Amino acid sequence: MPKIYEYLGLIFFFYANEHIPIHVHVAKAERESKIELVFENGKLIGLEVRKVKGRKPLDENELKDALKFIKKYYKGIVSKWSDFFVYGTKVK
Predict the structure, then answer these.
(1) pLDDT, tens digit, for every residue of 26-83?
(2) 1 within 8 A of 15, measured Cβ to Cβ
(3) Whole-angstrom distance between the N-terminal and C-terminal Cα of the chain?
(4) Which pLDDT does position 88 carry in this prediction?
(5) I need a labelling partner for 22 at 20 to 30 A (CA). Which of 41, 56, 78, 83 fits?
(6) What residues have CB less than 8 Å from 25, skipping those under 6 apart?
(7) Is beta strand 10-13 parallel, antiparallel or unpaired with respect to 43-51?
């Protein structure tokens, strides 16, 4: 489970056995949500929030902070996704 970022107590990470589309899990305490990055012609056009089975979702403020962070740092998330899942290198 590579942790890729930590911001305001939110932990951004991938599970080692992930799948496309590119997405990131965000957790805080016992809550967790999955955010999929939606691209069209190589450009980020949206974020889709998904529930994680067996986990309570992030609360409204946590989700707002997570989405704001992902919008700002999505290129880093995509780069880390590619490094880990395509090239098999460790996330830094």
Answers:
(1) 999 999 999 999 999 989 999 999 999 999 999 999 999 999 999 999 999 999 999 9
(2) yes
(3) 13
(4) 86
(5) 56
(6) 12, 13, 14, 15, 32, 33, 34, 35, 52
(7) unpaired
Work out whether the CA dihedral 40, 33, 57, 50 comes out positive or negative. positive
Return the ∠ at Cα 51 (arms to 20 and 35), rounded to 5°.
45
Place of tokens 């190589």: 42
Per-residue pLDDT at 2 = 85
Give pTM, 2 decimals. 0.91
Task: Give every CB contact of residue 57 below 8 A, 6+ residues apart in sequence.
Answer: 31, 32, 33, 49, 51, 63
C-beta of residue 80 within 8 angstroms of C-beta of residue 2: yes
DSSP structural state of residue 86: I
How far, in Å, CA of 34 to CA of 48, rounded?
8
Per-residue DSSP letter, 21 = S
Distance of CA 78 to the CA centre of its chain: 9
